[in-house]
Amino acid sequence: MKLLSPAQTRALDQATIRAQYTTSTALMERAADAVTNWLLNELLLDYDTEIHVCCGPGNNGGDGLVVARNLHRAGYRVHLWLLPAARHSPDFTHQQQQLPAGLAGQQISPNQLPAIAAGAVVVDALFGTGLSRPLEGAAAALVRHINDSGAMVVAVDMPSGLYADAPQPADCAVVRADFTLSFELPKLAFLLPQNAGFVGDWRLLPIGLDQEVIHNTAVDRFFVTADELRGQLPKRPKFSHKGTFGHALLLAGSKGKMGAAVLATQACLCGGAGLVTTRVPAAGYDILQISAPEAMCLTDPDTDCITELPDLAPYDAVGIGPGLGQHDDTRMVLRQLLETAQVPLVLDADALNLLGAYPDLQNLLPPNSLLTPHPKEFERLVGEPARDDYHRLDQLRDFAGRTRCYCVLKGAYTALAAPDGTLYFNSTGNPGMATGGSGDVLTGLLLALRAHRHLSPLTAALLGLHAHGRAGDLALPHTGHAGLLASDIVRFIGPALEELMG
Ligand SMILES: NC(=O)C1=CN([C@@H]2O[C@H](COP(=O)(O)OP(=O)(O)OC[C@H]3O[C@@H](n4cnc5c(N)ncnc54)[C@H](OP(=O)(O)O)[C@@H]3O)[C@@H](O)[C@H]2O)[C@@H](O)CC1
Ligand SMILES: Nc1ncnc2c1ncn2[C@@H]1O[C@H](COP(=O)(O)OP(=O)(O)O)[C@@H](O)[C@H]1O
Ligand SMILES: [K+]
């Protein structure tokens, strides 16, 4: 799915009106009907609930007027509140004229705010994608009043006061919604941790916007869903053998962190690599052979950390980092790997920390390498804290462009930046995956997919991120959030990949 800017959203709106020979009022009614249906069928509003519909002066407010009208006609207890404004959009004015006699909107002011009971539902239709500046005066007062009310808040299209794809200044008033009902496509703002308290749970309501126009709109950011990835993992041919699916080499583990090597190895096996060899310090030999008997184990001469790079000739891809430690000798192994590798690389954890601590190593990164930092590792990698989540995405794009690599930023909605600066956001996963070892599993899975001979670096990365989160989602009903362990994610990698197979 494309993540459009507000200007592109407006253009899409207009193009839909032209392509479907419809009117902007009719489109507004579609949007408002979708919101009304969601309130009735998903939120299960009951007739006793006090509903406050708060409308701004533009088309977001126009949506709100239609929702209020719909609910009023259906017999619900609707209170309609309007913001004072110098100008209203034509569609707002039109919808205001359609209000039934029993539903008069009342204008609010900073010292005349509606009484909202804690058990009420507030429909926030103050501002949507047309927000042009931070809220002040009556709008800011109403937003703070809604936030303090304890009512359930459902935002139409956007929580009012939030920009769709840019940061807002600290301390400005933004609605804290329980649910945000957005039309057709998500907004970038929904995917960023700093906005979680405003957006709440977000849902997409289809309103029949023109698919051809969406298809032809050029964007550099995507929210990647299962529909877009299904079929991208090649089916295994009847006469395939273990040599068909690549031989992966993993360098992982150090004293006290051999489990990371085990998890990444298991994930690489479940990710479909034909053969997996894991290089561990000598102390890891029994651990690895017992816990991952399907993998081959190449021990380092050193007991506790990796000090020598094995011959890379047999391998189709190399992964390095989980539980690796940052010993000086290990750093030399990383340097040698970066200087000599002719096959795809996946770099994680301490390999990234070493790249951060010794930035000259970054100049050696082979193009198309895949790096998988979480935000802290990413900060070490770029050597500068981000001002906010938007700035961090800029840093991610810059890093991918500068190194010509694919760089992940892990979290809920993990982001992937491609060397051309395109951003892809993953749509799977759950908070149960916020547990030690989940990232090691991702590394192993991505390594398997990079060893696959028929996947581009981008497709491998997108499939891996999706399948990792999906495996976590498939594990969840069996484990619950607290009980979900990294090894549970491993167990469901196979089923998650199967869903994506051609
Ligand atoms: N595109 C679609 O797919 C569809 C879109 N639809 C709906 O339309 C919405 C977009 O409508 P929109 O463009 O009229 O903008 P909206 O958010 O109502 O605000 C604009 C008004 O607010 C004002 N204003 C702005 N900032 C302000 C501030 N800080 N403080 C005070 N005032 C401020 C601004 O005034 P101005 O900046 O000109 O002074 C203008 O009057 C979209 O979110 C969705 O709900 C659906 O109906 C159909 C399908
Ligand atoms: N709230 C969440 N929602 C979805 N995925 C999550 C969430 N929290 C963590 N994850 C995923 O779990 C993994 C955690 O990786 P990482 O922080 O490196 O863990 P570790 O270092 O313990 O292995 C990442 O792939 C991340 O996207
Ligand atoms: K809104």
Written description of the protein model:
Its cofactor is K(+); Mg(2+). It catalyses: (6R)-NADHX = (6S)-NADHX; (6R)-NADPHX = (6S)-NADPHX; (6S)-NADPHX + ADP = AMP + phosphate + NADPH + H(+); (6S)-NADHX + ADP = AMP + phosphate + NADH + H(+). Belongs to the NnrE/AIBP family. In the C-terminal section; belongs to the NnrD/CARKD family. It holds the Pfam family YjeF_N. The protein is α/β, with parallel strands linked by helices and about 500 residues long. It folds into two domains: about 200 residues, Rossmann fold (3-Layer(aba) Sandwich), CATH 3.40.50.10260; about 270 residues, Ribokinase (UDP-N-acetylmuramoyl-L-alanine:D-glutamate ligase), CATH 3.40.1190.20. Helices cover about 40% and strands about 15% of the residues. It has a ten-stranded mixed beta sheet with strand order 8-17-16-15-14-13-12-9-10-11. The protein is elongated. The relative contact order is 0.09. The model has no long low-confidence stretch (mean pLDDT about 95). The chain binds ligand NPW, adenosine-5'-diphosphate and potassium ion.
